[in-house]
Amino acid sequence: MTTASPRRTFAIISHPDAGKTTLTEKLLLKGGAIHLAGEVKARGQARRARSDWMKIEQQRGISVTSSVMTFERQGITFNLLDTPGHEDFSEDTYRTLTAVDSAIMVIDAARGIEAQTRKLFEVCRLRSVPIITFINKVDREGLSPFALLDEIADKLALDVSPRMWPIGMGGTYEGLHRIGDATAALPTAVQEEVELAQVGYPDFDVEAYQHGDLTPVFFGSALREYGVDDLIDAIATHAPPPHALPAEPAPVEPEHPEVTGFVFKVQANMDPNHRDRIAFMRLVSGTFRRGMKLTPTGHGKPIAIHSPILFFAQQRELADEAYPGDIIGIPNHGTLRVGDTLSERADVRFTGLPNFAPEILRRVALKDPTKTKQLRKALDDMAEEGVTQVFYPEIGSNWIIGVVGQLQLDVLLSRLDAEYKVAAGLEPSPYDTARWISASDPAKLKAFVDLNKGAMAKDRDGNPVFLAKSAWEVGYVADRYPDVTFAATRER
């Protein structure tokens, strides 16, 4: 991008199978980023979308890692962050949502609000991320438009303002009507529905939407491209541009003249031929230019960024300039990590990118003992990416992997084999949960660690971690040691 055109940086969130990947592809098609939409094949065959590049994604037809795609349409630069829909990858999705200014929530017209949709919405609410709702698959049999709107309002405690109305659903579907257009040509029943919707739901209020209190609702079909143009026009017209983001010592405005940004994701081996490692940075302020030097927090030494890249899934181009709201990739070899702030003066640190305590713990069993070094590198790489967390026990040599969901373990084993040529298995762990520990008095922390060596480990950063057999044990031990803090999250 060579000019500071308006930016819209947004994510797409949904429950699995609601049509997120198809909608992503059609937005890219409408934006001119691709010329031919990928084929969504019959059930049982691999679904291949341009944003799903990892081997396990192609095999299973699911997104398991966040992708970034940049495109332009009618003078606006869109930065689309495609997130994993599966709940087992909620940590990656959470961090991605820290890097966007708005989101599209995709809902299946036949299923309504589903569990993962609700979880992701709550993450958006925590950060007051404005949401546009797209009710997908209206060309199939589903719930009535009123039932869907009322469910969104009731379950999410969110005002809804329909912007489109389906003329029939499923087998009776005939098209879409824009709310506010003349209704004289519509069938009488549809006229009555539209009039009732206009009276029964709030008018669209841009300010309420941008504060996260109201969601404009669009109906359509991503597969058939119904309603997609109106959706992307709504993002262009109403979604907020880059704004101030939380930081210490104070929030940083996009107008701040010096370049600042933060790393919200690290991805290794996007190009297996080059064994590369890319840090994804959200630019928050200033005009970034290729070759400039930025200082990462915790590093202290400026690094020159000679080959920053813009993404279209796996395709890349060098970024000579970037502006607030843009996502750029920085090739590096372990220098940059998730949560790092990069700035010209190293006097700012962006906040709000936590690690979450894992819900599943497993021991790693290496099948070839000569591959210990490769295994450690692989586990460290994937811990940096957020695929897993890795804990190194104080006693014993079996490293422990922590994840939020079972599918992450499948991804771990698949990538160990495909990218690192390491054959490994997973065994039950005697532990059920993990907590980061700290204390204001170093002597009391050391005393606790010395007395509980058998349950102590370190994470990949060397922070002390207490491994517990159950949540009950965490509570019991915490009561016995009131001067020690047991944390389920840790700021990166």
TrEMBL record:
Family designation: Belongs to the TRAFAC class translation factor GTPase superfamily. Classic translation factor GTPase family. PrfC subfamily.
Protein name (database record): Peptide chain release factor 3
InterPro entries in the record: EF-G-like_DII (IPR053905), EFG_III/V (IPR035647), G_TR_CS (IPR031157), P-loop_NTPase (IPR027417), PrfC (IPR004548), RF3_C (IPR032090), RF3_dom_3_sf (IPR038467), Small_GTP-bd (IPR005225)
Protein residues bound to GTP: 14-21, 82-86, 136-139
Domain (Tr-type G): residue spans on this chain: 5-243
Keywords of this entry: Cytoplasm, GTP-binding, Nucleotide-binding, Protein biosynthesis
Function: Increases the formation of ribosomal termination complexes and stimulates activities of RF-1 and RF-2. It binds guanine nucleotides and has strong preference for UGA stop codons. It may interact directly with the ribosome. The stimulation of RF-1 and RF-2 is significantly reduced by GTP and GDP, but not by GMP.
PANTHER family: PEPTIDE CHAIN RELEASE FACTOR RF3 (PTHR43556:SF2)
Organism listed in the record: Sphingomonas guangdongensis
Keyword Nucleotide-binding: yes
SUPFAM superfamilies: EF-G C-terminal domain-like, P-loop containing nucleoside triphosphate hydrolases, Translation proteins
GO molecular function: GTP binding; GTPase activity; guanosine tetraphosphate binding; translation release factor activity, codon nonspecific; translation release factor activity, codon specific
Protein localization: Cytoplasm
Biological-process GO terms, alphabetical: regulation of translational termination
Taxon lineage: Bacteria, Pseudomonadati, Pseudomonadota, Alphaproteobacteria, Sphingomonadales
Recorded name of the encoding gene: prfC
Top-level division of the source organism's lineage: Bacteria
